[in-house]
Amino acid sequence: MNRIFSGVQPSGNLHLGNYLGALRNWVRLQRDYECIYCLVDLHAITQWQEPAQLAAQTREAAAGLLACGIDPKTSILFNQSRVPAHAELAWVFNCVARMGWLNRMTQFKEKAGKDRENASVGLFDYPVLMAADILAYKATHVPVGEDQKQHLELARDIAQKFNHDFGVEFFPLTEPLILGEATRVMSLRDGSKKMSKTDASDHSRINLTDTADAIADKLKRAKTDPLPLPDSVEELEKRPEADNLVTIYAALGDKTRSDVLRHFSGKGFAEFKRELTELAVSVLSPLNAEMRRLMADPGAIDTVLRRGAERADAIARPILAEVHRIVGFLRA
Ligand code: TRP
Question: Which among 138, 194, 223, 255 is annotated as catalytic?
Answer without folding.
Answer: 194
